[in-house]
């Protein structure tokens, strides 16, 4: 498996950055120290109606390190 940015990852919830912009998933050092991913809506501009879905997608992405660790723990006995 290739390397990845270790967790925890967090989702940018600052409304100043979320208005019409991508929702940012930050690495372990937090905002301003390197984004892990950006979630966009179709057309690259997020409307008020799309923000809940885009934010939910961002939270799912941000959970990736914890999900990976959970899978590893489940497979450990095998």
Main attributes of the structure:
alpha+beta, 3-stranded antiparallel sheet
What does this structure look like?
- There is one protein chain.
- It is built from 3 helices and 3 strands, in the order βαββαα.
- It is of the alpha+beta class.
- It has a 3-stranded antiparallel sheet with strand order 1-2-3, covered by helices on one side.
- β2 (23-26) and β3 (35-39) form a beta hairpin.
- The longest helix is centred in the C-terminal third of the chain and has 12 residues, at 51-62.
- The chain starts with 9 loop residues before the first strand and ends with a helix.
- The mean pLDDT is 81.
What is this structure, in a nutshell?
Helices cover 36% and strands 14% of the residues. With 78 residues, it is α+β, with helices and mostly antiparallel strands. 15% of the residues are buried.
Strand content: 5-15%
In which order are the strands of the major sheet placed?
Answer: 1-2-3
By secondary-structure content and strand pairing, the structural class works out as: alpha+beta
Rg computed from alpha carbons, rounded to a whole number of angstroms: 14 Å
Number of helices: 3
Q: Report the sheet with the most strands, covering strand number, pairing sense and barrel closure.
A: 3 strands, antiparallel
Mean pLDDT: 81
């Amino acid at each position: 498996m290739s390397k990845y940015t270790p967790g925890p990852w967090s989702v940018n919830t600052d409304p100043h950055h979320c208005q019409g912009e991508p929702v940012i998933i930050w690495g372990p050092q937090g905002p301003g120290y390197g984004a892990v991913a950006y979630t966009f809506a179709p057309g690259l501009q997020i409307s008020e109606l799309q923000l809940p879905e885009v934010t939910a997608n961002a939270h799912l992405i941000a959970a990736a390190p914890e999900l990976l660790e959970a899978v590893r723990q489940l497979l450990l006995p095998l």
